[in-house]
Specification:
globular, mainly alpha, disordered C terminus, two-stranded antiparallel sheet
Length: about 625
Amino acid sequence: MDDADATASGDSRIRRSPDDTDVDLTEATQALHEWEAEEHRLRDEAIHNRKPFEGLQIDPDIDFYPEVADREPGDKNIVRWGFDIHPQVTFWSAGFLLVFIGWTLIFQDTASDVFGEILSFINEKLGWLYVIDFNIFLFMALYFAFSRYGKIRLGGPYARPEFSTGAWYAMLISAGIGIGLMFWGVAEPIYHLASPPPLFEVDPSTGQAAKAAVATTFLHWGVHAWALYGLVALALGFFAYNRGLPLTFRSIFYPILGPRIYGNWGNAIDTLTVVATLFGLATSLGLGAQQAAAGLNKLYDLPDGTGFQILLIAGITGLATISVVAGLDAGVKRLSQLNIYLAGAFLLFVALVGPTLFILSLFVQSTGYYVQIIPEFGFWNEAFTGSNWQAGWTIFYWGWWISWSPFVGMFIARISKGRSVRELLTGVIFLPSALCFLWFSVFGGAAIDLQLSGERDVATAVNDNVATALFDMLEAFPLTEVVSLIGVLLLVSFFVTSSDSGSLVVDHLTSGGKLDSPKPQRVFWAIMEGAVAVVLLLGGGLSALQTAAVSTGLPFALILLIMLWSLKKAFNEELDLLEGHYDEALFRSRHSGLIEEMKSRLEAGPTEASEVRQEAP
């Protein structure tokens, strides 16, 4: 039978040349399936057989830049009294924070006024900068993910992930969104329902206002924020795993600064990173303390004033300290997984006892509407409205996300070895965004339904005390006390994971990226986080928390833009080195056994094929 006859009859054999023997593709397909199964086995083995993680340590196994090949993380550290610290970064950042804490405690009234003035200046004069920055972040994240850069893998073509996909998602979600979702899940959609953004030109407390309210909430918690987290994680992970530099923010700028990252420029970058991270975390911890106090007041009539909130911060900081000492595997990972289970049960309960069909319809419709308006809403800056609505919302969120990005990005980078650029960015951007949308559709949707139907006046509760919004809504559903208690426990759990993850990041930065930093040092930074949150509450409450996030985010936004330039330079260098070989190396890393077997088949011929298959490894 000739080639045409073979094709016409559906024969699964092909010829290499007229003189060659036939090769049965059925056996090749089966072999491919076998080796794909083997790849899954090896991935699982890489996860289960790795050494336990205690912190954010990375031991680089490559010296890419010869001029700094002799440098080790933390090689200039001061080791004394149970501490192992990078002197410049630690003293500069700790000194600034101690001065800030002392000034705020001594001059509380003055501090409150100053915080308000700073926030107003940034909102009025520089809000446009935040808006354009976040659109650049989103564009660059999609560009890196879906261009030729997407195939670059953290750790090289042969690297395999060190965490399962489920554990990876659990940790990045818990680190990235926890307390904020609990605090704003009910409050933000209700706020926008009562006072819609001027862009939409709709009447308050109507169906159109509800549509605008949910879409606005999606903007603040959607792809813009997660694109920033993904980019920072990508940059940190690439320079650590692919270039052998310490897992610190200064390493990102090596293509621009070269060896000077180990000098004053690098010290300044890491110091600003520490301060931004601590203020971003303190904002979240302050919000969490306010809501936890409000929930306990509702449940057990406990006080909910500033004094009790400070006690809560102290207690939860203690729990976070225990988790930090336990390490990444024993502490942070387990708490993150617990968070996901509790949050899932909490979400499911409200979705089932609440207006289920309305919630599902709202989720689908609002997601579509968000996709439809994001080009306009993402660039909207109140140029023609003469209003100042964005000051307390979009600008605050963009500053908050920027101040969180070093912490969340470094944490995601630490757990993302072996993932491609495309896998990391799409994983970090789209699934967490969808989960945020679902959360706000369930809790915000249930509250909106109660408000519009007149069954419960949630808006009044939000205006009276935003921290009580969630617990006020739960009073409309059965098992109020039990579910409210679960809400408080979930809030505390998110509180702890945010604090301990942030402490690991700050500790890592102030040790110069040292592989093993002492436990007393971790405890110090966990306590410092709580102290900053306390003084912000004393110095002005929610306004001070917002100011801390927005003001520290401003200088860091400029660093992030430079980071994109540096990362693109490094990616071009990577592809120049690997172009023409990268795809082949990636295929060989996945199917090396299959390649060897098929070579053996072709050399052995059809009579020995079955024997080769049996002998193949």
